[in-house]
């Protein structure tokens, strides 16, 4: 009896081992059912972490070739990415090198692209005529020679003479402006408080003729309108036309006059704050106006950014369009438009901002916060 039991056990053991050995050869092997994909556990990079997604200079150049948005008669329009300079800055040790917040930031510049771009577009060479600053994306103008550059400069002067603001920016602001649209003629000037190392730009509504003659002010003509508001009126897509970009004029206007800083702006992002339940402009001559901005938790939740990582939020300001009236010849009006980059579209989508249908009305000042347009000149601790 004992021998029979041993033979049965050995036979079953051999069968089990044999089946296990050849299981991988079965056309449809059996696996335990699991609806979860093991790859789902891998953390996908946030869209803000893929702004500089070039692994080499060659890949960067190839990508820039795809960003050509206009090419005619020696004038080339390029959609410049966020965080890219026109050329390499000097290695001045006194230059402020504060961290940009860009994940895997590269040091490539537009100048690196010009030789290959000229070759691909059949030009002997290309030069940079107009480009947004490093932390603004959008339309960049390149020219094949001095004639094209002179033509662009002349077109911009024609626009100024006709009181046309040729540059149109799209910005995403924290909070919603009190008015759906507006037009203002302002001026900027520098104030030099004793306890600050650098002068502080401010916007003024009144100025004297002597100040302008001495070059102490810079005229700032502004037109703006709300294109769309986010869910719960947390943010807005605001179109801004500005006659100058000196001293980051668009950021300064949004924060100081609209009381709606641009999302991701760490230069003027604290110029307006909610204090004791009221939205106010902070005196730019005190430290409270220059601390890192505090982003609203509701916005951070929607864009899926934790507060300790909010420095990777890019400044949401994009040069959407440039208008060149009578370029090279009369009535030859040229308009160059640059599409939004994926990170910008991601923010619009997460905040549920509709860009196709304008908002029916502006935010009610009592809906979220009480808007107080008076400037606070007292220290806010």
UniProtKB/TrEMBL annotation:
GO process annotations (BP): pseudouridine synthesis
Family: Belongs to the pseudouridine synthase RluA family.
GO MF annotations in UniProt: pseudouridine synthase activity; RNA binding
Keywords attached to this entry: Isomerase
Reactions catalysed according to its record: a uridine in mRNA = a pseudouridine in mRNA
Top-level taxon: Eukaryota
Full protein name: Uncharacterized protein
Lineage of the organism: Eukaryota, Metazoa, Ecdysozoa, Arthropoda, Hexapoda
């Amino acid at each position: 009896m004992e021998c029979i039991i041993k033979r049965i056990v050995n036979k079953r053991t051999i069968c089990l081992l044999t089946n296990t050995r050849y299981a991988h050869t079965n056309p449809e092997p059996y696996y335990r059912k699991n609806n979860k994909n093991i790859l789902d556990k891998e953390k996908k990079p946030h869209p803000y972490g893929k702004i500089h997604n070039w692994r080499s200079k060659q890949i960067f150049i190839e990508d820039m070739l795809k960003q050509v948005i206009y090419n005619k008669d020696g004038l080339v329009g390029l959609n410049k990415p966020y965080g890219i300079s026109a050329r390499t800055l000097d290695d001045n040790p006194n230059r402020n090198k504060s961290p940009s917040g860009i994940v895997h930031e590269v040091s490539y510049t537009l100048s690196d692209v010009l030789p290959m771009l000229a070759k691909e577009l059949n030009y002997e060479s290309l030069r940079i005529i107009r480009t947004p600053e490093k932390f603004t994306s959008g339309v960049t103008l390149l020219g094949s020679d001095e004639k094209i550059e002179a033509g662009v400069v002349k077109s911009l002067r024609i626009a100024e003479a006709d009181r046309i603001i040729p540059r149109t920016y799209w910005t995403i602001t924290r909070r919603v402006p009190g008015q759906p649209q507006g037009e203002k003629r302002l001026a900027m000037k520098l104030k030099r408080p004793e306890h600050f190392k650098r002068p502080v730009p401010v916007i003024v509504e009144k100025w004297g003729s002597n100040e302008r003659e001495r070059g102490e002010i810079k005229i700032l003509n502004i037109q703006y309108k709300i294109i769309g508001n986010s869910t719960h009126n947390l943010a807005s897509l605001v179109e801004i036309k500005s006659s100058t970009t000196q001293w980051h004029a668009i950021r300064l206007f949004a924060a100081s006059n609209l009381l709606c800083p641009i999302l991701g702006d760490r230069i003027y992002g604290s110029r307006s704050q909610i204090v004791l339940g009221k939205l106010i402009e902070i005196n730019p001559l005190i430290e409270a106006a220059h601390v890192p901005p505090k982003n609203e938790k509701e916005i951070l939740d929607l864009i899926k950014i934790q507060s300790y990582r909010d420095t990777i939020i890019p400044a949401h300001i994009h040069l959407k369009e440039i208008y060149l009236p009578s370029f090279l010849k009369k009535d030859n009006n040229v308009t160059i438009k640059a599409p939004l980059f994926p990170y910008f579209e991601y923010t619009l989508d997460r905040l549920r901002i509709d860009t196709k249908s304008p908002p029916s009305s502006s935010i009610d000042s009592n809906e979220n916060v009480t808007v107080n347009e008076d400037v606070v000149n007292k220290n806010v601790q």
